[in-house]
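Q: Hi! First time doing this. I have a protein sequence and I read that you can turn it into a structure. Is that right? Here it is:
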Amino acid sequence: MHTYINPNTSNRSSHEAESALAGFCKPMYECQMHRDSMKLVVYIPGVDANSVSIEARGADLMVTAIKSRFVRVNFNALNLESSQSDYKLCLRLGKGYAFELMQAEIQNGVLSVNVPKRSAGFTMADTSLRNVA
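A: Yes, that's right. Below is the predicted 3D structure, encoded as structure tokens:
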């Protein structure tokens, strides 16, 4: 059994990641590896297709899902702050995937993203940001 302990160092990238995730909760997800692709299944109940954004930034894949808001008179009394949080998932997948060819679909609060692997002879050029959905 291995235990990994992250040292408590203050680097800029961890602070940027923490500030980007403030006000969001991390959704449940599954990664299924296939021979020529990876399928990512993200569970985001209460979110429709128009409120989902999938971005590829270098080796990272970011999924942001915004819930629709219902204003209730007794919002604070019901303690709904955490249950009505929006979702944000940041995964470092590496540069072995062709993010420009990924496909996504959402059905009943389940987002399925299929990301194909790059071919062996592909050389990674500087890729720009791409908003998929």
